[in-house]
Amino acid sequence: MGAWLGRGLGRCVILSGRNVLRSRRLEASMSDPSAPVVGILGTGDFSRSLARRLVASGYIVLVGSRTPKRFVSLFPEEAEVTSQIDAASQADIVFIAVCPEHHSTLSDLKQALAGKTLVDVSNGLRISQYGPSNAELLADRFPESWVVKGFNTISAWSLQMGPRDGSKQVGDNSKAKISVMELCRRMGFIPVDMGLLSSSLEIENLPLYLFPSWRVPVLGTLALFIFFYLYNFIQDILQPYVTAGKNFFYKMPIETVNVTLPSVALVLLSLVYLPGLCAAFLQLWLGTKYKRFPDWLDQWLTMRKQLGLCSFLCSVLHAIYSLCLPMRKSARYELLNLAFKQVNDGVEISWDDEKVWRMELYLSVGIMALGLLSLLAITSLPSVANTVNWREFSFVQSTLGYCALAMATIHTLLFGWNRAFIPAQYRFFLPPTFLLVLILPFLVLLGRLALLVPCVAQRLRQIRRGWEKSHHIRFTLLQDGSQNSLENVSHV
Questions:
Q1: Residues 284, 463: contact at Cβ < 8 Å?
Q2: 34-208 CATH, one of 3.40.50.720, 3.30.420.140, 3.40.50.300, 3.10.50.40
Q3: 95 contacts 39 by C-beta, under 8 angstroms
Q4: 9 — pLDDT class (breaks 50, 70, 90)
Q5: Quick one: pLDDT at residue 207?
Q6: What per-residue confidence (pLDDT) applies to 352?
Q7: CB 272, CB 311: distance < 8 Å
Q8: Are the C-beta atoms of residues 102 and 84 closer than 8 Å to each other?
Q9: How far apart, in whole angstroms, are the C-alpha atoms of residue 57 and residue 53?
Q10: Where do the structural domains in the chain lie, given as residue ranges?
Q11: Where is the protein localized (predicted)?
Q12: Cβ pair 93, 119 in contact under 8 A
């Protein structure tokens, strides 16, 4: 009796839950009759996040599982966890959230899925160049369904947190693709139409790339670091050891790195603004903005953000290394030796106004440069950039960016002070590091000043507003004088 009572109570609870779900489905259909019923085949992390987002967007969600009772507690109460055949039969759009190697387990649903839109959200385990893609294999397995590739570039975390990133879709049926794009918009994402299903391999490879836009900036940063590190090593460590037998190899881990980092940071910051100057002078030379830049310049322009962030990283590391300099044992020993030498020489006061002023100005300008770089880095974040208009963004990234470059250049000049005129600084007949570093920033700042000359600035402004050197527009009167006409006069 007790056993039967328990079973009966269990059945009653399940039926009660289904009745609640049916009433909710009825309410949702009455509030928005055009909203399709969305099915999800699969019960993984992505499925649960997708179900939560769909429910929050007002959709009726059916989750298909081979063991519904096992996973019902993992999904929102508003989503109905049922069998795969029920979800496939009742849904209008079905998300295939099953690993590609398990697509064969869905073969029994072929008839239930016929004529419906299937959204493949899967990704491969490694980058594939030849195909076929998972979406194409799914389309071959369900020839009577319309397969749309989408949502594979969005993580489960993004689905739960809700950023407005783009979801890329491809498909061969325009109606099916439009329905998925509308669903995407309603969920708060921005859909991007990437063409036919034949391009699905490219979309499946996108989440597998490791920072593709960072490859060249990071390699360039490493190359600059190695170059300046070796240059400083030769001048500050190798030359004293070869010529005088002095052992300064202890400087390699911290002091040599600390001298290298600002060199890399300043050169990278110059490389951020140099392509913009090249583009401006190229437009002035061609007299038009309608001619494409060379590929190398176009790619250089697109990686300015990454170069700027690498420069900011090197600047922050330089500041941290500089703060750690007095903590070294070698610095304490040098300070004690200097104090002992001063006592032996009978020097009571070792104050030097020139050195004091140089260090005060050097640190102050360096702090201001780092502050401006921090502002540039923060503004480059999408969450911050989306809250400012284009004029504000341009002011920060351009005007304040050049101010940061000028401050960093002055910071380097104060570091050099009068050392450029001391012959002992040219070890192995090589110029000091700061002289090499200053070449590129000076070129960039001088180029910027040249563009600020009124006649040059006005001509560049005209070109960017559509004026062309080889074509002018003028009015000519018709013979009857009734109306004016436009004549395109070429001076080529």
A1: yes
A2: 3.40.50.720
A3: yes
A4: very low
A5: 72
A6: 86
A7: yes
A8: no
A9: 6
A10: 34-208, 214-465
A11: Endosome membrane
A12: yes
Core vs surface per residue 378-411: b (16+ CB within 10 A) or e: ebbeeeebeeeeeeebeebbeeebbebbbbbbbb
Summarize the confidence of residues 346-353 as an average pLDDT: 84
Of the ranges 76-80, 112-116, 196-200, 359-363, which one carries the lowest mean pLDDT score?
Answer: 196-200
Task: Write the single-letter amino acid at 10.
Answer: G
Cβ neighbourhood burial of 31 (10 Å; 0-12, 13-18, 19+): exposed
Query: In this predicted model, what pLDDT tens digit does every residue of 159-168 receive, in sequence order?
Result: 766 555 556 6
Q: pLDDT band at 303, cuts 50/70/90?
A: very high
Q: Which residue has the tokens 């039967």?
A: 4
Task: State the helix-helix crossing angle for 433-451 and 401-416, rounded to 10 degrees.
Answer: 140
Residue 170 near residue 205, CB atoms below 8 Å: no
**What is the pTM assigned to this prediction?**
0.71
DSSP 118-140: EEE----SS--SS---HHHHHHH
- Is 113 within 8 Å of 146 (Cβ atoms)? no
- Confidence band for 170, pLDDT divided at 50, 70 and 90: low
Task: Give the whole-angstrom CA distance, residue 51 versus residue 330.
Answer: 61
Per-residue H/E/C for 246-304 = CCCHHHCCCHHHHHHHHHHHHHHHHHHHHHHHHHHHHHHHHCCCCCCCCHHHHHHHHCH
